[in-house]
Amino acid sequence: MGYLEEMLIKNGVIYHSPDGTNSYIEGSLVSNSLVVRNSAGWVTHRIERASNGVDLIVRNLSTGLVETRITM
Length: 72
Description:
Blueprint: H1 3-10, E1 24-28, E2 33-37, E3 43-49, E4 56-60, E5 66-70
Antiparallel strand pairs: 1-2, 2-3, 3-4, 4-5
C-alpha cells in the first residue's frame, strides 16, 4: 500500500468493508488526474494538484468541495 492510499484510508475517502464493498484509486485519461471510484464504479472523488504544485487535494464530486489536502 502506498502513501497516497494510506492517507486516503485515514481520511475516510477510501474504504474496505467486510461485506466486500471497496473503493479504489484509478487514473483518469479525460481529466489527467486520479479518481476514487466506489464499489459500483461511480467516481466519488477527484485527486488534483494543489495551487502550490506540490501538495494534492481531494475534491468530492457531489459537493465540489475540497475534503482533504495531502502534503507530499
